[in-house]
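User: Sequence recovery, please. Input:
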């Protein structure tokens, strides 16, 4: 089987989650139903999901010198995620304040903390130190220049890059040139490209992103590149350079309890499936399966399918 060494360059947060019947209006106070503290951050979430999928995962980011940071290190190490490349900053660790409504919809406010202090030179050194690196995953919850430098480094190493552009933001041309797989959700796609995702708009976006790039010229260890737009309960739309068409990938219908972290479950599983050499549409189907399973439970990382459950989901 192909190497499954995956590096996640990104954010680590402590999630402070309130479940409530309805969100308050401006100036209004409402009672919440319950409150929990969990581990989160898009980078950390994706690392945990990738680890549950059986990859050797290296988490690259920054934590504060505080209780949240220490607990996060202990948590990731306990799951088997390699934490030797986590930096420490003399500031608070990142936190996410999350409201979850009865239908599972969530509203999130992020305080970056140490996530804003990630050192790009340290990230480059970390990636250069990982042997047989297959895939590098990034998001936009840490400084964009850091993720950009990580991807440029990844390309020199022949690794495939997967960017989850969240929060949505305009990307520089040299950054885009180092992205092999762009994986926005439908709202991020619309923010970036100014269109709702459908077959025509995705083909246009892929043309804008990849231009005349060919499979032979991309310089990564995998054979294709492309664009995947996740659509929640509707699954995903996948454009791949392997077949130059948009494929609709359906997902399992479930009773959603909490959608927090579902997109990260998709990205983590998708990245590992690519690292295994799976076809892009199949990799997206695996991502959809893991994301759908996660929304049936509360929380982010604690809602992800276990390694045993994930083995069944990977067996498509």
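Assistant: Recovered sequence (316 residues):
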């Amino acid at each position: 089987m192909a190497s499954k060494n995956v590096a996640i360059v990104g954010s680590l947060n402590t999630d402070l989650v309130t479940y409530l019947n309805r969100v308050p209006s401006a100036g209004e106070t409402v009672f919440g139903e319950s409150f929990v503290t969990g581990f989160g951050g898009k980078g950390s979430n994706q690392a945990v999901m990738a680890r549950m999928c059986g990859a050797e995962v290296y988490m690259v980011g920054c934590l504060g010198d505080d209780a949240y940071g220490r607990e996060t290190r202990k948590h990731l190490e306990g799951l088997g995620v390699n934490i030797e490349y986590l930096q420490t900053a003399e500031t608070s660790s990142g936190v996410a304040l999350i409201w979850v409504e009865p239908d599972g919809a969530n509203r999130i406010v992020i305080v970056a903390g140490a996530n804003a202090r990630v050192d790009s030179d340290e990230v480059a050194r970390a990636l250069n130190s990982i042997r047989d690196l297959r895939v590098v995953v990034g998001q936009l919850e840490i400084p964009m220049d850091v993720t950009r430098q990580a991807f440029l480094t990844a390309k020199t190493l022949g690794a495939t890059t997967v960017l989850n552009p969240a929060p949505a933001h305009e990307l520089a041309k040299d950054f885009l040139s180092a992205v092999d797989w762009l994986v926005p959700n439908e709202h991020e796609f619309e923010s970036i490209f100014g269109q709702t995702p459908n077959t025509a708009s995705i083909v246009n976006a892929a043309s804008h992103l990849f231009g005349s790039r060919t499979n032979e010229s991309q310089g990564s260890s995998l054979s294709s590149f492309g664009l995947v737009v996740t659509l929640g309960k509707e699954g995903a739309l996948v454009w791949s350079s392997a077949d130059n068409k948009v494929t609709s990938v359906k997902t399992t219908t479930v009773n959603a309890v909490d959608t927090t972290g579902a997109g990260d479950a998709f990205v983590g599983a998708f990245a590992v499936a690519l690292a295994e050499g799976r076809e892009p549409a199949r990799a997206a189907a695996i991502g959809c399966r893991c994301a759908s399973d996660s929304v049936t439970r509360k929380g982010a990382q604690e809602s992800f399918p276990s390694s045993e459950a994930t083995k069944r989901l990977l067996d498509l």
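The chain has one domain: 5-12+41-86+115-314.
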